[in-house]
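[Discussion] Sanity-checking designs against the backbone

I'm trying to build intuition for which residues belong where. Below is a structure token string of 962 positions. I'd appreciate it if someone posts a full sequence so I can compare it with mine line by line.
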């Protein structure tokens, strides 16, 4: 996002939503001089004069360079050019230049007869002003720039008012004109315009009084009688020349209205031509989204010649609303018909030849709205509702959600003051987050701060931080989030209320229809759709719904008051949640003991791959829901369900490198298992944490977790825990210890090459793999059809990779294929590719790596595919194709960075550095390798660190030879 500058008021530098302080007075003067000449060279002499005036110090040019250097730290684009400096920014990023451009465009539009467009552009231009031009800047700069800008501002204001009067908007500009003549009592044109506005509003006597006041001021101050323009306005008032009066019921605009430019543009674009069919627009969204404020703001900016009508619907009948509308259109009280049909006919007759704007606020149904739609050509209806009212014929609907981040901060600043927000920007964002960016909630929070000048933003944020009292805090006067939500809740059917409040047991921001069925029965999905139509839920993609955080808190309140603790609801849904998570895990880990999904070699591999990919996609879609549910179950002390769900989710987190979610759920699951006294669950969650520590390079912590798990582990899982300990030793370069673990596990998994006892009776818990006296037996003839063929495949693969033994890896590959495990197959293909590359068989290595990459892509496994791309980069380098190597490594780097994989990122950067060196781009190679050494060191990756150091030495050596 570009930096924007403001000089139409105090000097302002905005980087996004953040206000940047330009520094002391002379720095500000220097910046203003550059801004007023944006994109043009400003000579040293002119800058010195701008900063110091007519008597600069002898050291002015030297000090000027210091000031420029200081400004460059906060403002980009200051360039040194012959004879001076230039600020390379788009002039439109400076409000003064944008103001002048808009005024010029408006004048061209006016001259072309486009009065409405001209008035709108002038309004936009004048809206850029925040106070006096160059406020706080003195001397030559102010004389040269501020005075002309102020004069242009007054001229633009008078021109815009003239256009408003031409368009019949006199009643709307009276207050603005009174302020103008008060500030500039000698401007005759402003007095004349005030008189014409009063005449248009039917206030002839006030117009005559204004003339007398203007004449008295001119005579007293200047000794002059009024000029022609003011005398003409006086004559018009005397003749009582005023146009026909029309209803104008639009409520006052909200002073702190912010953003919504897309929605406003949509409304303006829909305004029909005078002879076109009427247009009906529906603004729909959740309670508190600012629908009414947007409709009013939009209505104030639309000009329809025959009036503006406004009605608040809520639970009112169409007949009652029509009675008010008919009176607004001039129907005497005694002439309003009694029946609804007669009122509809009379209403349509009265608006048939009028071009009107009708705002129907807070509609509940199509039937409520239909009788109120105007029929006159060129008319426009704005309807606000929590429902899209899709059954309303010929209507267009626009969904209104919460505000964008920048808009929310700007709105808060308008309510409480920019200074207070700028002083605590982090707390402002925290308030926005706690209010869920909901306009109503933000307006309430802001009004509380505005009334309590002694409160800091942090104080209010702390009060809002307590979920139990947040809805109580979001109440100010007659504004309250809870009462707004209650209106929608009371309008629901019994089934809809039941589902909404039971959803309040969940803290997840979104969910799928299947959870609704688990909460209320088979009709849950249909009821969830109804809640979305009512605006209390929002569609978040295909078959997925979300809700506002404040709606969630209200639903939780209703659940507690109407049904009791959330634990009972969670307990009822836990079985379905666990069953779905378990089945997805089983598909991700085919052939895992107990899954019942071991596939024979006759199963179609493509079918198996598709099932695994689908499982991964489902879990990825449900990830945020499942993570939140682990916390919900833990909070409700449903410990068995909490630890099991945390365990089931581990493969998803590992495959997608979702380390934060992994850490959170594993910690909660471990605590739940311990709280429940479930030793096996504790062991499984310790193992999960160990896998996380290993993935993050915290190898000693991983080893400690595994050693703590071994005494707790059930007999069938001991070998799996020992196998993971071997992986940790492998990462620590403790290769003999790792080999002993893998060999011992292979025997326990049912592939003992030495004819050991029944592997199901092998107990590894008493053995310390670091002291085991095992020979590196020949495994090539072992029978792998044992108790755990997947475990045997994993151990074979680990041993093959450790020893660099392609035969063992190929046996692992064969076993993975028999099991229907394409993920294991892809990983082993990559191991074999690495062995082929080490043996300089580059063609074979490329073919194997491409097969691994293709499998991973079909599974949707981003990180394994990135690992394959990284190996392909190494192959390309070995083949003498450094550009291809750098491209492949760049693809891998993007994937690793997007998933936060630090080790993968460091490896990819190392490959890029090596390719750059091959291309003789020495500096690029040094830059690329420099950042990897610290990362490898932090990860405890000694091999990676050694490779990086060697590459850095070679790069420096080559640079020295140049």
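Best answer:
Here's mine. Compare freely.
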């Amino acid at each position: 996002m570009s930096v924007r500058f403001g000089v139409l008021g105090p000097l302002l530098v905005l980087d996004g939503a953040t206000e940047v302080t330009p520094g002391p007075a002379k720095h500000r003067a220097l910046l203003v001089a550059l801004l007023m000449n944006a994109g043009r060279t400003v000579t040293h002499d002119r800058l010195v004069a701008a900063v110091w005036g007519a008597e600069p110090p002898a050291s002015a040019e030297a000090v000027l360079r210091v000031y420029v250097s200081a400004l460059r730290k906060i403002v980009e684009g200051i360039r040194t050019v012959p004879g001076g400096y230039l600020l390379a920014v788009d002039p439109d990023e400076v409000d003064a230049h944008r103001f002048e451009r808009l005024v010029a465009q408006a004048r061209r539009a006016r001259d072309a007869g486009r009065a409405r467009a001209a008035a709108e552009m002038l309004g936009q231009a004048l809206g850029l002003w925040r106070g006096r031009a160059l406020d706080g800047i003195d001397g030559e700069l102010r004389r040269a720039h501020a005075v002309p800008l102020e004069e242009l501002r007054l001229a633009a204001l008078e021109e815009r008012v003239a256009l408003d009067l031409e368009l019949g908007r006199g009643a709307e500009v009276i207050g603005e004109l009174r302020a103008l003549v008060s500030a500039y009592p000698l401007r005759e044109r402003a007095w004349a315009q005030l008189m014409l506005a009063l005449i248009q509003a039917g206030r002839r006597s006030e117009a005559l009084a204004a003339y007398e006041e203007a004449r008295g001021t001119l005579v007293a101050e200047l000794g002059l009688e009024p000029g022609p323009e003011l005398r003409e306005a006086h004559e018009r008032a005397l003749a009582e020349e005023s146009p026909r009066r029309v209803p104008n019921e639009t409520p006052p605009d909200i002073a702190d209205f912010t953003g919504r430019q897309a929605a406003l543009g949509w409304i303006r674009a829909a305004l029909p031509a005078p002879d076109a069919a009427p247009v009906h627009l529906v603004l729909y969204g959740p309670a508190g989204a600012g629908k009414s404020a947007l409709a009013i703001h939009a209505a104030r900016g639309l000009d329809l010649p025959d009036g503006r009508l406004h009605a608040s619907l809520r639970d009112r009948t169409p007949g009652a609303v029509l009675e008010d509308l008919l009176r607004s259109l001039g129907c005497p009280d005694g002439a309003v018909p009694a029946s609804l049909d007669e009122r509809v006919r009379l209403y349509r007759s009265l608006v048939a030849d009028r071009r009107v704007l009708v705002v129907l606020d807070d509609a509940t149904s199509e039937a409520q709205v239909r009788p109120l739609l105007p029929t006159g050509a060129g008319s426009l209806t704005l309807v606000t509702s929590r429902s899209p009212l899709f059954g309303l014929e010929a209507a267009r609907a626009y969904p209104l959600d919460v505000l964008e981040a920048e808009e929310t901060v700007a709105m808060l600043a308008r309510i409480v003051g920019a200074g207070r927000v700028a002083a605590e920007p982090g707390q402002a964002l925290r308030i926005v987050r706690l209010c869920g960016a909901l306009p109503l909630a933000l307006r309430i929070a802001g009004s509380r701060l505005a009334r309590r000048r002694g409160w800091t933003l942090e104080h209010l944020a702390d009060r809002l931080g307590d979920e139990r009292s947040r809805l109580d805090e979001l109440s100010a006067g007659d504004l309250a989030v809870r009462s707004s939500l209650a209106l929608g809740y009371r309008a629901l059917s019994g089934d809809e209320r039941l589902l909404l409040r039971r959803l309040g047991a969940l803290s997840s921001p979104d969910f799928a229809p299947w959870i609704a069925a688990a909460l209320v029965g088979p009709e849950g999905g249909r009821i969830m759709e109804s809640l979305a139509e009512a605006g209390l839920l929002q569609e978040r993609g295909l078959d997925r719904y979300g809700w506002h955080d404040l709606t969630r808190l209200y639903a939780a309140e209703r659940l507690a008051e109407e049904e009791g603790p959330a634990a009972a609801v969670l307990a009822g849904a836990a079985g379905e949640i666990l069953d779905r998570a378990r089945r997805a895990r089983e598909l991700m880990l085919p052939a895992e003991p107990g899954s019942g999904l071991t596939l024979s070699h006759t199963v179609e591999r493509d079918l198996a791959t598709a099932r695994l990919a689908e499982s991964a996609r489902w879990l990825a879609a449900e990830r945020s829901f499942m993570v939140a549910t682990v916390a919900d179950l833990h909070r409700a002390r449903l410990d068995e369900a909490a630890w099991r769900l945390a365990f089931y989710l581990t493969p998803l987190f590992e495959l997608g490198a979702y380390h934060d979610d992994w850490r959170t759920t594993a910690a909660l699951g471990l605590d739940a298992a311990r709280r429940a006294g479930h030793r096996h669950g504790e062991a499984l969650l310790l193992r999960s944490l160990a896998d996380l520590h290993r993935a993050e390079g915290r190898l000693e912590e991983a080893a400690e977790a595994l050693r703590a798990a071994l005494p707790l582990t059930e007999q069938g899982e001991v070998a799996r825990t020992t196998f993971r300990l071997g992986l940790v030793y492998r990462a620590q370069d403790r290769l003999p210890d790792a080999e002993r673990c893998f060999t011992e596990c292979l025997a326990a998994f049912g592939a003992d090459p030495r004819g050991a006892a029944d592997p199901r009776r092998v107990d590894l818990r008493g053995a310390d793999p670091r002291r085991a006296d095992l020979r590196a037996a020949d495994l090539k003839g072992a029978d792998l059809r044992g108790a755990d063929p997947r475990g045997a495949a994993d151990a074979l693969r680990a041993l093959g990779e450790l020893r660099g033994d392609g035969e063992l890896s190929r046996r692992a590959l064969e076993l993975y294929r028999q099991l229907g495990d394409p993920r294991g197959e892809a990983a082993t293909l990559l191991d074999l590719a690495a062995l082929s590359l080490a043996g300089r068989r580059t063609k074979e290595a490329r073919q194997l790596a491409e097969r691994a990459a293709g499998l991973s892509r079909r599974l949707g496994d981003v990180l394994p595919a990135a690992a394959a791309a990284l190996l392909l980069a190494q192959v390309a380098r070995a083949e003498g194709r450094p550009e291809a190597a750098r491209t492949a490594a760049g693809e891998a780097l993007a994937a690793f960075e997007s998933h936060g994989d630090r080790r993968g990122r460091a490896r990819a950067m190392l490959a890029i550095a090596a390719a750059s060196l091959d291309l003789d781009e020495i500096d690029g190679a040094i830059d690329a390798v420099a950042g990897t050494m610290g990362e490898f060191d932090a990860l405890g990756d000694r091999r990676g660190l050694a490779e990086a150091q060697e590459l850095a030495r070679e790069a420096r050596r080559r640079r020295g030879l140049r």
